Amino acid sequence: MGLAMARQLLAEGHTVLCISRTEQPALSLQAGAALLQWRHDLADTAALTPRLESWLGKQVGTAWASATLINNAGVIARIGPLSQSDASDIAGALRVGLEAPMLLTAAFLRATEGWPARRRVLSISSGLGRRPMASQAAYCAAKAGMDHFTRCLAL
Ligand SMILES: NC(=O)c1ccc[n+]([C@@H]2O[C@H](COP(=O)([O-])OP(=O)(O)OC[C@H]3O[C@@H](n4cnc5c(N)ncnc54)[C@H](OP(=O)(O)O)[C@@H]3O)[C@@H](O)[C@H]2O)c1
Prior knowledge:
By secondary structure, the chain is an alpha/beta fold. 40% of the residues lie in helices and 15% in strands. NADP nicotinamide-adenine-dinucleotide phosphate (NAP) binds next to loops.
């Protein structure tokens, strides 16, 4: 889904900054668009959030008509009862699915505060954030957390 959104967003006048663990060679530059691909593991945002904040801080806010942060990455931990789940699987699903979106959103809002541009945060949730599913506790919890975090943010 991230690749499909990036492809559609790579239009004239747009800058698309993609963050994932691997670069996506299928993304090709369109005339008049700018493409950046940063390799980071969202399970470890210690270096990423200052990098994003610093990059945004170097932009001329008045040059942007709008700025949107899309939280897309999600992780389905190994499917099984919580009692048999790996601690690192649970932590990874919550870090990538909930902690990283919250920290990146905070950095994005801090760095773009005062920009006249329309600022938006779009987070990709799942029906499983609202409907519980057996053996999917970490994913369901991350998505439910994302939904409620988004409601708080809207307020
Ligand atoms: N597919 C569905 O049926 C479905 C249904 C409901 C909701 N969703 C939600 O929609 C979103 C996209 O799902 P999808 O099916 O398109 O997923 P996907 O095909 O597995 O793609 C996940 C993307 O996230 C990146 N990613 C995963 N773990 C990462 C990490 N630790 N650090 C950095 N980047 C990471 C991956 O890039 P790298 O591997 O290069 O890091 C990839 O670009 C997710 O939030 C998912 O929960 C999906």
